[in-house]
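Worked example 3. Consider a protein that binds 1-deoxymannojirimycin.
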Amino acid sequence: SGAPPARETRAPFRFDYERFRRSLRHPVRGGRSGEDPETRARRMKIKEMMKFAWDNYKQYALGKNELRPLTKNGHIGNMFGGLRGATVIDALDTLYIMELEEEFQEAKQWVEKSFDLNVNGEASLFEVNIRYIGGLLATYYLTGEEVFKNKALELGEKLLPAFNTPTGIPRGVINLGRQGTRPRQHSLYGMSWSWGWASAGSSILAEFGTLHLEFLHLSELSGNPVFAEKASDPRPGLLVLSRVEKPQGLYPNFLSPVTGSWVQHHVSIGGLGDSFYEYLLKSWLMSDKKDSEAKKMYDDALEAIEKHLVKKSAGGLTYIAEWRGGILDHKMGHLACFSGGMIALGAEHSTGERRQRHMELAAEITSTCHESYTRSETKLGPEAFRFDAGSEAMATRLSERYYILRPEVVESYMYLWRLTHHPKYRHWGWEVVQALEKHCRVEAGFSGIRDVYSTPALHDNMQQSFFLAETLKYLYLLFCEDDVLSLEDWVFNTEAHPLPINHTDSKA
Ligand code: DMJ
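Given these inputs, the predicted complex is written out as C-alpha cells:
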C-alpha cells in the first residue's frame, strides 16, 4: 500500500524512422530472396482476403462503421458517438503494411475529405481510443503523414472531460458534442456516464486500464502533457489501484470512479479485464523497460492469476478460469485467448525459471484455444468454452456458440510463432484462413457466424472492423519475416495498431 515510488521525468520518445521503414520494406516488396514459396503464397492469400474485405466495405458501406455483407449495406451502431468510418480507420495501417497502395489511398482520401469530428453523441471512451486514436496514431507513425496525427490529437481532446471524476478514473461513456459558445446554450459537451449495465455506476477495469499507450503518444506528438497526465502520469488510475485492497491479489472488473473501491468481485482475464493486463506489460515495453511500476503490477497480477485461476482439465488442457466472489467459473471466453500471446511476450523479457514457466504456460493456453477451434465443425472457435459437466474446450450454451471474426486466437499464434518459431503456429494459422474462407466468406465480404458447431454456417451479416485491423493483420504477420513490425521496435495496441517503442539508447 501507499503511493507508488516517484518516477523520473520521462525522456522524450526517439524514433528511428529509417529503421522502421527498412523493416517494412521486406515483406511488402515480395519477401526475402530464398523465402519458402509456400509461406509467400499464404501471405499473398491473406492479402487478397484483406483486399476483398476492403473492396466490399468500400463499395457498399464506405463512411458507415461496418459492412453488412449479406444485405450489402452499412451499419452505424452506437459505440462511437456519431463518429463514422470505423472500418476505414481500423483498416488503414493494415492496408499500408500489406502494400495495398491504391486501397490505402482510398482510405486516406476518406479521412481527408469525409472524416468529420464535429459529432454529437455518446461514445465508448475505450472503443474510440483503441480503434480511432490507435488507428490514426499507428498510421501516422508508419507514413509520417500529418493528417493522421492531427485527427488523432483533435479527437483526443474530445475525450479529456471523461477524466473529470473524484478519483480521476474515467467513466465509460463520453459525449463528443461541441462546447456551447453562448452562455445559456445547452450542450452535453464533456458529460460522461457509466454504462447502464455496469453495476452501481462503476468503471470497467479493461476500459480505464486501456488508455495509457495511446495517451502517452498523444502527449508526445502534441507536446501537451495533459494526455499523459490524465491517463498515465501520475496515473490516477494506477494510484487508486495500487492502494485498493485486492482480493487474493486479483483485480476485480468493476471499480467506482467516485470512491475508488471495487463494486463487484468478478475477475476475468477475458472480457472486462483483458487489456488492463495487456497494457501493464506493454506500458513497460513501450517505455523501453523504464516503467517499472507497470511491470511490477503485471508481475504481481500474473502471479495471482497463476495461483488462483490457472487450472488443468481432466483431459489435460490448461485454461484460465473466471472468479466470482471466490467461486471459480470454469469458462474461458474467446477474448481470454489473447493471453497466450501476452504471457509469451512477458516471458520473452523474463529470465530463468520464470521465463521457462511462463513460456510453457503461454504455449499451453494457446494450444487449449486451438483445441476450442479444432473441436468445432467449422474449425472456428466459439465465443466461450467450458470445462465443466464433462465438457472440454467446447461451448455448452447455445448463446456462446457464435464466432464474430475475432482475432485473439490468431494473435496468440503470431506471438508464439515469433517467439518460438515452432511451425505448428503457422500451420494452425493456415487452418483458420481455410475455415474463414469456407464458412465466413460470402459474396460481398466476410461475415461472423451464429454457431461454430453446425454447417452450413448461418451468417450474422456483420464484417467487424477488428477483422481488418487485427485478424487479417495478425494472420499476415504470422507469414512475414520477424523484422516486419519487429516486436523489438513496436507494441501493438489492443486493436493491433502498432505504436513505436521509446528506445532511449541509439541502437539503430
Ligand atoms: C477488439 O476491439 C479488441 O481486440 C479488444 O481488445 C477486444 N475486442 C475486440 C476483438 O475481439
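Take a moment to read the result before moving on. Confidence is low (pLDDT under 50) at residues 1-10, 26-30. Residues 275, 335, 406-407, 466, 470, 494-495 surround 1-deoxymannojirimycin (CB under 6 Å).
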